[in-house]
Amino acid sequence: MRRLFPVTDVTDATGEAAAREWSPAELAAAYAYPEPGPEGREPWLRANMVSTLDGAAQHDGRSQPISCPADMRIFGVLRALADVVLVGAETARQEGYRPARARADFAAAREAAGQGPAPVIAVVTAGLDLDFSLPLFTSPLVPTLVLTGAGAAPDRVAAAEAAGARVVRAGEGAGVDPARVVRALAELGHTRLLTEGGPRLLGQLVAAGVLDELCLTVSPMLAAGDAQRIAGGPSVTLPRRFALESMLEEDGFLFTRYRRS
User: Residue 4: left if φ>0, alpha if ψ -120 to 50, beta else—which one?
Assistant: First the structure.
């Protein structure tokens, strides 16, 4: 892996000085969350997504075919830094989400930061159309959160709670309000937030103006077809401007990090 931006005293304009595999600690430093301000740590929501050159976020409904080993290393580090991994119900089903695992190489850092042994998985769902017999709900290291609306069906709420999940209301009626999702997680003490999509959830977060950072892997592949982009759903009045924070490269894949301007 080599750093293309920003250029430093150990990275020339070609990046050749850093063309090596980075350790988890180096990646963690490159993707560190902002330091707390005078008022304490404010919630910071970053997204981690992958896209082909022609804009496909998936192939055959999954992101794995357009990913690579370096992308998965960064995926693991971003999870290890987060308090919560936020995911839409459809993506949880399609990608076969399982509980986040504890990583020995991040155990001391998480303990020092006051974090649990692994990030909490938080599933955003209006209808609670989920299989609550899966390990994601029955055997996580830390209880899975289910974020839903105030009008969610009582029998589905009961099923989630019976499986061991914690149900959090983050919207009126059956809907879920992205801004309330962020506030609800912060009220639970979760401020280092990571979303892995899918496209519908990411689109809602973008439209609500609550996304602070996008970590986008650009895959050197062409997929064609009718696959979704990384974000769908409602549009915004004007495109939101983000600033390039860093760019890494390995094997033709670009690992970009943008933050809101």
Answer: alpha
Alpha-carbon torsion (140, 146, 152, 154), positive or negative: positive
Token pair for 46: 């970053």
Q: Is the distance from CB of 202 to CB of 230 less than 8 angstroms?
A: yes
Q: Are 85 and 78 in contact (CB under 8 A)?
A: no
> How far are the Cα atoms of 6, 49, 112, 154 from residue 75, in angstroms, in the given order?
21, 9, 21, 35
CA gyration radius for the chain? 18
Q: Which two tokens stand for residue 250?
A: 């390995």
Per DSSP bridges, beta strands 213-219 and 192-195 are: unpaired
pLDDT value at residue 179: 95
Cα separation of 125 and 174, whole Å?
A: 9
- What is the strand order of the sheet 166-169 is part of? 2-5, 242-250, 253-260, 213-219, 44-52, 192-195, 84-88, 120-124, 145-148, 166-169
User: How does pLDDT run across 108-149, given as a tens digit for each residue?
Assistant: 999 999 999 999 999 999 999 999 999 999 999 999 999 999
What's the whole-model pTM score? 0.93
CATH number corresponding to 40-225+249-260: 3.40.430.10
